[in-house]
């Protein structure tokens, strides 16, 4: 990439590395979710991501349950596979100096600390780019670098509430607010950060300069509200929760059958006519309440009751088979185990096995498939300090310097 190849540590490239980002060196000074998701996305694409943890318990997700091989938290494995690990005490002068030396030779740094923490340590973007003009500095915060909330700490639940997600998720008006099941803003912010990093690396190929990538949980939540934001900005009114229904199209939601729920997408005119043919409700084609999508939206509750009544006369499997045969979009409402074991999940290799502490552990696969330089699952999540000596050597530290860092406790020594 754009940085001087002469200074590239050997661990960042070579036969063992593969993927479209092979040769890119990333230092991850991040914890819990958003930053580690960003690092995982880059690592899955072949970047050499080094996760830096503090002495002691390390990343807080190491304490989560359940646990898998070697007593490692399953959540930690999921967010940190494909990375190398090192322990550095940034509260010491020697630790800060070691970090600066590494950051002067990497391509990307990821951090998701509260605004100002990295600057107070002398590791902010303005300081680091003096020694490394090609550095891409990815900063993921709760609310972004600017604005009245820039200094506020960020958490997914808080971001979901403040960006409107809790107000549009749930069963309907008058019901309690409901959080999206996954930590949506954390995961989305990590993916946005990775996208920004890749764009900055591409720009560096032409300019030779790095830049700061700035995103947040707040913006990640807002970007997930595309349809509801469109309604709000067009009407001046805030839409509320609709259960599984769509704010702009009907029928497009989960509906009950005699033995469970299915989802149906019969909103466009072609699929609508096919759907009522399958359900033997042909008379609805001439019903002025349901003639167009706008009509159906205006009478959505009546439509829901009619469709539910008919669907309850058959099983989910029966209706799904008939709807699929008629090319009407429909699907099951799966539990997580059912979803993870689905033949489509298997075919797309979205559950893979990684070696963790010498034992096989299942983890999610690569959601992006590349035809020429595919992503590769190369290793599990690192144990605390597992690659410390190897990483320091790759970043130009002598054997004597490494031993001093380990002996002083500034860098943690891996204990198998």
Rounded Rg: 25 Å
CATH class identity of the domain at 5-224 and 367-408: Alpha Beta
- Our count of helices gives 18
Question: How much helical structure, as a percent, in the residues?
Answer: 25-40%
Share of β-strand residues: 5-15%
Describe this structure in words.
The protein has 416 residues and is α/β, with parallel strands linked by helices. The protein has a domain at 5-224 and 367-408: Rossmann fold (3-Layer(aba) Sandwich). Helix content is 38%, strand content 13%. It has 18 helices and eleven strands. α1 packs across α8 and α8 (184-207) crosses α9. The relative contact order is 0.14. Residues 1-15 have low confidence and may be disordered.
Reconstruct the topology from this structure.
Blueprint: E1 25-29, H1 34-44, E2 48-53, H2 74-80, E3 84-87, H3 93-103, E4 108-111, H4 117-120, H5 125-131, E5 136-141, H6 156-162, H7 165-168, H8 184-207, E6 212-216, H9 217-223, H10 226-235, E7 252-256, E8 261-265, H11 269-278, H12 293-298, H13 300-311, H14 316-325, E9 330-332, H15 336-340, H16 343-347, E10 351-356, E11 359-364, H17 388-394, H18 399-408
Parallel strand pairs: 1-2, 1-4, 2-3, 4-5, 5-6
Antiparallel strand pairs: 7-8, 8-9, 10-11
Question: Can you give keywords for this protein?
Answer:
Rossmann fold, elongated, 416 residues, disordered N terminus
Brief description of this entry?
The chain is 38% helix and 13% strand. By secondary structure, the protein is an alpha/beta fold.
